[in-house]
Amino acid sequence: MNDMLRLIEPLIPSLRRYARALAKDRAVADDLVQDCLERAVSRWHQRRLDGDARTWIFTILHNLAISRFRQTAFRGNHLPLDDADDSALGQPASQEDQLTYSEVLDKVSQLPEEQRGVLLLVAVEDLSYAEAARVLDIPIGTVMSRLSRARERLLTLMEGGGERVVPLNPQLRRVK
Amino acid sequence: MTDHPITEDDLHGYVDGVLDGARGAEVAAYLQDHPDVAARTVSYAKQRETLRASLAPIAEEPIPLRLNIGRIIEARRGPRISKWVASLAAALLILIGGAAGWSLRSAVQPASEGVLALAQEAGDSYSVYAPDRVRPVEIRASEAKELVNWASQRLQRSITVPDLASSGYRFMGGRLLSTPHGPAVMFMYDDDRGTRLVVLTRAMTVDQNMPMVPHARGAVNGFAWADNGVGYSLVGPAAPDVLHSIADTVRDQVKRGI
């Protein structure tokens, strides 16, 4: 139990950040993190002792997020008004040459789901390529190719404001 | 410069700072010679910084209560404890229930032995014969001597008829009854208002000497006891305290008679 507290607690800020960047909506993201923590607590004894707690718990979170997105894919992206206001008010003061928090979230959300996960895990959450491969359950080569495509696409999205390129809607891509 | 050509993976590794020192230096040297690739790599690095800087505030936010891991662990442990407590409580209840059931077995279930069985038999007799307007007794009070002889013979002991006149009840007569514990004799009394009382007596094999115990069935009360192997039960629709004093009278007379 103490192990659990000691190993999981420091990861919660990262988990919230990853969930928020994936889900965009604060309430949805925190729901995911809560589910993730409850699952981690209840399955703590199933964790492989030689495994890394961070990789393990990010795997739980990622899988919860993916299944949540698949459930909501047909309903579209739900963004309650309260939370929209909240995140708009809560964003840090924008710098001239830097995109704001919500703008970045917006651009990131236009990435295909599988590219988004890789980029966030590697570039933001500092997982190694091997760890990201374990979280996403894909070969490391796939991590590299998705990372490459994610960076290219995000560059296009950020520079062009999404106008030159018609972004593939990840929600629409799911419906097939 | 080694023989390994620079790959796309190396560029990303360079941006993410995961290359070892030697390979990093090789990529840096390569980028010096290839400005277009360098420009692309720099945009990756800038993008990385933008992402990290803009998403950092999320991780700085205070953790909401519902994401408090200590509480989640407690919440999970809570049900476990209460589950344990619940099963312990259930086990205790079963034990208590069992013990109570065992100790109350005679009160809850039809009493099969002793004065409680006698009390039940008396109650049954009362409910069958007391409402009877045609022939509540088989042998009338006028033939009391015949009844006493017959009963004494069947019960194999000297039987006397209690006199309840002091309590306002007249002896009406009686009859011989069968019980699961052998023959019994029933005496019936009534008062001026027609209220009837019944005394049932028989030999006891269980509870040969037993203090008086009250019993009740609806509005009908009763007291049962046993002395020297003979049991008595007085049953009637009188208040328990009234009936109790009548029962005491019966008991005194029986004791004196013996």
Q: Can you give a write-up of this model?
A:
The complex is a heterodimer of chains A (176) and B (258). Chain A has helices at 2-8, 12-23, 26-42, 53-72, 81-90, 101-109, 113-124, 129-136, 140-160, 170-174. Chain A is mainly alpha-helical and 176 residues long. Chain B has a seven-stranded antiparallel sheet, sandwiched between helices. Chain B is rod-shaped, with a radius of gyration of 47 Å. Helix content of chain B is 52%, strand content 20%. Chain B contains eight helices and seven strands; from the N terminus they run ααααααβαββββββα. Chain B has helices at 8-16, 21-33, 35-60, 69-103, 105-108, 114-129, 144-155, 240-257, and strands spanning 139-140, 170-179, 182-190, 196-203, 210-217, 220-227, 230-236. Chain B folds into three domains: 8-60, no CATH class; 65-103; 112-257, MucB/RseB, C-terminal domain (Phosphorylase Kinase, domain 1), CATH 3.30.200.100. Classes of the chains: A mainly alpha (176), B alpha+beta (258). Chains A and B meet through helix 1, helix 2, helix 3, helix 6 and helix 7 of A and helix 1, helix 3 and helix 4 of B.
Topology:
The complex is a heterodimer of chains A (176) and B (258).
Chain A: H1 2-8, H2 12-23, H3 26-42, H4 53-72, H5 81-90, H6 101-109, H7 113-124, H8 129-136, H9 140-160, H10 170-174
Helix pairs in contact in A: 2-3, 2-4, 3-4, 4-8, 7-8, 7-9, 8-9
Chain B: H1 8-16, H2 21-33, H3 35-60, H4 69-103, H5 105-108, H6 114-129, E1 139-140, H7 144-155, E2 170-179, E3 182-190, E4 196-203, E5 210-217, E6 220-227, E7 230-236, H8 240-257
Antiparallel strand pairs in B: 1-2, 2-3, 3-4, 4-7, 5-6, 6-7
Characteristic key phrases:
heterodimer; A: 176 residues; mainly alpha; Butyryl-CoA Dehydrogenase, subunit A, domain 3; 10 helices; globular; disordered C terminus; B: 258 residues; alpha+beta; Phosphorylase Kinase, domain 1; 3 domains; seven-stranded antiparallel β-sheet; 52% helix
